[in-house]
Predict the structure of Actin-like ATPase domain-containing protein.
Amino acid sequence: MFKRKPFSGTQQGLVLAIDIGTTYSGCSFSVLDPGVVPEIKGVTSFPAQPPSGASKIPSVLYYDSVGVLRAVGAETLLESIIERAEDEQWTKVEWFKLHLRPKSCKTAHLRIHQQILALPPDKSIIQVYADFLRYLFSCCRTFIEERILSGGVGFWESVQDRIVFVLSHPNGWEGLQQNSMRRAAVLAGLITENPEDRDRLHFVTEGEASLHFCINNRLTVKKDEGIIVVDAGGGTIDLSAYSVSDPDTNTFEEITPSECCFSGSIFVTEEARGYFEDKLRGTRFEEEIPRITECFDQTTKLQFKDSDEPYHVKFGGLRDREPNLDIRSGQMKIAGLTMARFFQPSINTISKAIADQCLDARKVITTVLLVGGFAASPWMFSKLKDILQQLGLSIYRPDTHVNKAVSDGGVSFYLDHFVAIRMARCSYGVNACCHYERSNLEHQRRGFVTFVDDTPLVENSFSLILKKGIQITQAQEFRESFQRTTNYRLQNIFVNVLAYQGIDNNPSWIDVDPEMYSAACTVTADVSKITRALSPLKNSAGSIYYRLEFDIVLLFGLTELQAQIAWKENGLEKRSPAKIVYEEL
């Protein structure tokens, strides 16, 4: 069984993991005391919750007509808030996390797509994200100050400038989404833009955080055995496959590219909403559809476990009755088989994704671990169990609160670092020019252009830096050599890195399957020191030009992409940091 080592630092610290989910959010933390084994604890009390508290709050905000934040989290469930929001026409913001999704991730449901678009006027997704982060951070501070017995207020004041934050995100989120989350964290006041603050914010995928949670809850994996961790949330289903790479150090390796599916629990609710709309259209209960859907989401959906039994959505009073619509005493009856149909699209997507991961994995998959809020559904668990047994797979849920797996796992990610080898989810490269070869049919088809040094080149070649499915260690470097030929001395260089999401295992040309290429980031660096030492050259026309030769070095093995620029000077390699720039969402 895993045993965490004592904290080796010399002063007290704090790790705070924040999991903003599509429907619910939570926080976990660990106090770092020198020489003491860190413990992971959850924030279990938020404003407007009953005295018993809970480990998560709704990912919901209310803004008034001028964009002022009026209510957040559990406060949005209060009847007084709901009534005031309706009277004063506040804007309700939910599922806002999905605004950050990559452009390649489409939502299957038109209704969900429309719901995602509902942001207040003059509010960007970065601002909304920052407002929610700021609120959660404040809740964490209050909880820690009140619950740490030996002077919580003094403790917070002593560590607040060096708190380490871990933000989780779906497996499908990449550099652009991380950059947006970082901007939101700065706007929320978690960190500053100062370079020394950069390392205080870390990112972890929900799949990797869930693995850490499972290990902390007595997961044991045999050598050469493969497992799939399925984090089933409100919006996304994140699948990650692992095996043990070193039993002595309890480190794991990813054995197939992780997956992110848009088929979480909100899609079950939207299937039900469609059913209610069809059934109640044109009746006196049509205006009750939002209320009926909400009651279904909060109660009936969670209770469903037997398709042979009818279920009821309680939404009104005794006078709400219409037998022809299966409504009696304010309750709408739904047949068990109808309930099952609401779940079926999500179950089909999840089971197919698991089967695909098994086929692609480097090791034989034997076990599936199901965590996340959607994992608590007895119907989904039982149906997945039936399907996976036919594939020779066992499925388990940790015997603890699976809905706080990501926040607890986020803290463990920082403390324990169980994953040593990750796998590239897509191919990365650059739009390059290659030397024209007269005998190459692909070159003949495209023709050539001539640059200032009289070299014939073919454009739109995809120069591969990292291939999808390659395993990557944290310190592993990937580099690409470049030349810049100009008639002046360059001061800065900009290299656009592309991501290829298609099915071609060896993509070579950007004009083939062009819709599968997207901008990953731009690497920029100051090269003025290099160009000062360049000697001028002459082309055949006698014009002066300069040729700059350098390498871009990328590190993909960390949870956040890093870059450097390398060049030769007097036969020795020199390096300088490079900045990674992302487009605006």
